[in-house]
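Q: What structure does this chain adopt?
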Amino acid sequence: MRLILYSKVGCHLCEGLQEKLEQIQGIEVELEVRDINNRDEWFQAYQYEVPVLYREKDGREEQLPRPSPRASVRQLEQMLQKYQ
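A:
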């Protein structure tokens, strides 16, 4: 599963989600982290929304529901299994 995480430096919610995504073992996850400060269009779209999680499927990006910051790695994995 290819995931894209829109993030920004210093965002503790972003860092927490990235850390949990990197710990998932039950699903093969390819994670791309995009710093919204690198592109003006990303910053304009997500400056008040990060972290924002997308999956890439068939060449398109599909936004996934925002997981709770309190979700465990296992709960996050279960959520992602619905989108495989």
